[in-house]
């Protein structure tokens, strides 16, 4: 995987490789992978052998970057990390590589957890993960916030981005990888009045005090999933006001007839652009301007939408129904966490 | 969230996806072909060969329509007597990759089992649609047989092998060699082969947007190769071997595939049909495996298992 990391760096010099290393070990810990597997991953990420030894009972293991077991040897004195009787190291010849420190740190943690020493580490997850998890008691979240040097009473926002996002500028602030049902998300804390973060794609959550930052996170994830680069590179949750909170709370698999109907509208090639125009416009004429078509064309499409949806999108509550169905449809069909959003040439020319 | 039931990825492989996703997105669309050609380009072959007793010679052969096509001949250093030969077809969804993509996984066959490996720079879709890729490969097979003395290859022990799109092309070569009275083959290694342009199996629809190479990617690849003919009645079985109606008289097949990838069902069906036709086939389905996991995560336990099992079969067929 070292070679793959190198390719990622070559394709996008701004890519955060350490976050990928963290996400990789997060999965290994969750998956309860054994010591050999952990060493194999570390060795593969580093491109050199990785080793482990413990004092009691005496045991040692060394694995190559290709995952093969090799004769164990003494710990590499320059890189060995020892904690709770367990030592891990990378057999790096020459100077340490950029990712060695984070690989070793994560390897040491993962091995301790696998050996039952680090149960506490597993239970008390990393601070930012605690902070944005609303099921964690508020006292614990406040303590986590304090350890992250966040000020009680001050307001912050969470920025959510995929691991492969391109950051034009990277604000300093607490950040980590947080697992979500949609995949690992890179979360970053910024002050509430921070200028919009130029990362593609990214979503910025609603402002909140530390005890409510889980709301900022969930709305940031909704905002992120509403991105459609390159057309919509980033989304501020503020733009959707209270609606974004409702979207964050809506279970993803709820039966929603309006959204199912919208599926049929979207099978037409004109579906997405027309819907976008309809929810933004106040009239057929304005919608036709936004969609860039003659108003008689738009009227015909509007008739088709009315037919398929079973209500008039310009009529009273129909506007709200269409708007909400459209947003949920976009969330359900969001691919923003799947793709390396910016293309190679985009990230080079900026 | 999609509610499609699907097998989980193996934990070590799932962890690997945190890195793999940066170079190989799950869903490859036409706009990503240029990106994939950069991200899936093989590392310099000199580095791959470093420390191995393998010598390489590049040659130009006549491919489809007589056009120039590059091949590399990789052989054990200092061996002069005729050796078994392997025609290797690389992966890359028919649209990207080069003749050294995934080559590190087959080099053991050269320096451990003493085979001569010929890897083909077949031309890629969509610029070169069907029949270019498969006929370039078949031309290479005929060239190897015709040049066997000069290349030091035993004509009685020749095998085809390929991964993913290359696996489909290798299966197509075996069919074509049978039908056209071409070289007699002693084996075909089909790693998670891309066999069916129709996308009709349950596994095709189980992995949208996750892992490596989903349904949409597959449609992108087959459309690049076949255009509007994809899924229709006029597709050659040499391009899409799942369409072959007669699987009799084929060389022994080794087929491996992940249980958590779209090609699972078409790989199993091909093995099953080979057996039904009285053929010799060995099938390995690796639990939790995403597509081409041995290429992307060879360090994992399941990756090691796949590579070791495949090499054991190849050794059985090829080694003296």
Determine Rg of chain B (CA atoms, Å). 18 Å
Low-confidence stretches of chain A: 119-124, 341-350
Largest interface (C-beta under 8 Å): A-B, 46 and 35 residues
Q: Report mean pLDDT of chain B, rounded to a whole number.
A: 96
| Poorly predicted runs of 5 or more residues of chain B | none
Count of all domains of chain B: 1
Give the distance, in angstroms, between the N- and C-terminal Cα atoms of chain A: 27 Å
Could you characterize the architecture of this molecule?
The complex is a heterodimer of chains A (350) and B (320). By secondary structure, chain A is of the alpha+beta class. Chain A folds into 3 domains: 2-123, no CATH class; 127-249, no CATH class; 257-332. In chain A, 45% of the residues lie in helices and 15% in strands. Chain A contains 15 helices and 13 strands. In chain A, the strands form 3 sheets. In chain A, strands 6, 8, 9, 11, 12 and 13 form a 6-stranded mixed sheet that branches. In chain A, 42% of the residues are buried. With 320 residues, chain B is an alpha/beta fold. Chain B has a single domain, classed as Alpha/Beta hydrolase fold, catalytic domain (Rossmann fold), CATH 3.40.50. Chain B has 11 helices and 8 strands. Chain B has an 8-stranded mixed sheet with strand order 1-2-4-3-5-6-7-8, sandwiched between helices. In chain B, α4 links the parallel β3 (83-89) and β4 (116-120). In chain B, 55% of the residues are buried. The chains are: A alpha+beta (350), B alpha/beta (320).
């Amino acid at each position: 995987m070292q070679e793959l990391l190198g390719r990622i760096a070559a394709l996008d010099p701004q890519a955060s490789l350490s976050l990928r290393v963290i996400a990789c070990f997060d999965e290994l810990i969750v998956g309860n992978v054994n010591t050999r597997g952990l060493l194999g991953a570390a060795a593969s990420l580093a491109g050199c052998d990785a080793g482990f030894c413990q004092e009691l009972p005496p045991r040692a293991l060394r694995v190559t970057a290709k995952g093969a077991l090799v004769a164990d040897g003494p710990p590499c004195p320059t890189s060995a990390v020892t904690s709770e009787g367990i030592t891990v190291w990378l057999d790096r010849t020459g100077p340490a590589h950029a990712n060695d420190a984070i690989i070793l740190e994560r390897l040491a943690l993962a091995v301790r957890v696998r050996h039952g020493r680090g149960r506490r580490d597993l239970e008390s997850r990393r601070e930012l993960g605690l902070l944005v998890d609303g099921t964690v008691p508020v006292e614990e979240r406040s303590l986590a916030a304090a350890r992250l040097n966040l000020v009680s009473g001050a307001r912050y926002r969470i920025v959510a981005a995929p691991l492969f996002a391109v950051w034009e500028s990277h604000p300093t602030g607490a950040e980590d990888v947080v697992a979500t049902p949609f995949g690992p998300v890179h979360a970053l804390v910024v002050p509430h009045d921070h200028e919009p973060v130029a990362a593609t794609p990214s979503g910025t959550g609603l402002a909140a005090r530390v005890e409510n930052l889980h709301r900022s996170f969930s709305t940031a994830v909704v905002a992120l999933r509403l991105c459609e680069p390159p057309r919509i590179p980033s989304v501020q949750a503020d733009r959707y006001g209270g609606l974004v909170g409702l979207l964050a709370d809506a279970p993803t698999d709820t039966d929603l007839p309006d959204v199912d109907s919208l599926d049929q509208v979207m099978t037409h090639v004109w579906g997405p652009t027309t819907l976008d125009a309809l929810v933004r416009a106040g009239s057929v004429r304005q919608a036709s301007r936004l969609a860039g078509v003659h108003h008689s064309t738009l009227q015909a499409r509007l008739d088709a939408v009315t037919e398929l949806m079973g209500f008039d999108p310009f009529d009273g509550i129909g506007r709200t129904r269409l708007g909400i169905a459209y947003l949920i449809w976009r969330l359900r069909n969001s691919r923003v966490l799947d793709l390396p959003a910016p293309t190679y040439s985009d990230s080079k020319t900026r | 969230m999609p509610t499609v039931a699907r097998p989980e990825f193996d934990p070590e492989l799932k962890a690997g996806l945190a890195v793999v996703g940066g170079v190989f997105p799950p869903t490859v669309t036409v706009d990503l072909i240029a990106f994939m050609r950069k991200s899936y380009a093989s590392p310099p072959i000199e580095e791959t060969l470093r420390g191995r007793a393998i010598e390489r010679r590049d040659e130009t052969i006549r491919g489809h329509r007589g056009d120039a096509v590059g091949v590399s001949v990789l052989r054990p250093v200092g061996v002069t007597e005729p050796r078994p030969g392997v025609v290797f077809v690389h992966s890359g969804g028919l649209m990207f990759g080069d003749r050294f993509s995934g080559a590190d996984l087959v080099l053991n066959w050269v320096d451990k089992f003493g085979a001569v490996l010929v890897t083909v720079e077949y031309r890629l879709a969509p610029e070169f649609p069907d029949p270019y890729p498969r006929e370039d490969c078949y031309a290479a097979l005929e060239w190897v047989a015709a040049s066997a003395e000069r290349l030091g290859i035993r004509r009685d022990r020749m095998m085809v092998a390929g991964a993913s799109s290359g696996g489909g092309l290798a299966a197509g070569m075996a069919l074509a060699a049978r039908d056209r009275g071409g070289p007699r083959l002693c084996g075909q290694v089909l790693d998670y082969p891309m066999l069916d342009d129709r996308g009709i199996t349950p596994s095709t629809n189980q992995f949208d947007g996750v892992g490596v190479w989903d349904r949409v990617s597959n449609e992108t690849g087959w459309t690049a190769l076949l255009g509007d003919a994809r899924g229709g009645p006029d597709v050659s079985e040499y391009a899409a071997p799942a369409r072959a109606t007669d699987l009799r008289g084929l060389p022994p097949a080794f087929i491996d595939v992940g249980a958590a990838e779209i090609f699972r069902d078409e790989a199993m069906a091909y093995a099953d049909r080979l057996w039904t036709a009285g053929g010799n086939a060995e099938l390995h389905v690796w639990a939790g495996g995403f597509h081409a996991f041995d290429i992307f995560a060879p360090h994992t336990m399941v990756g090691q298992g796949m590579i070791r099992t495949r090499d054991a079969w190849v050794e059985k067929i090829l080694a003296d």
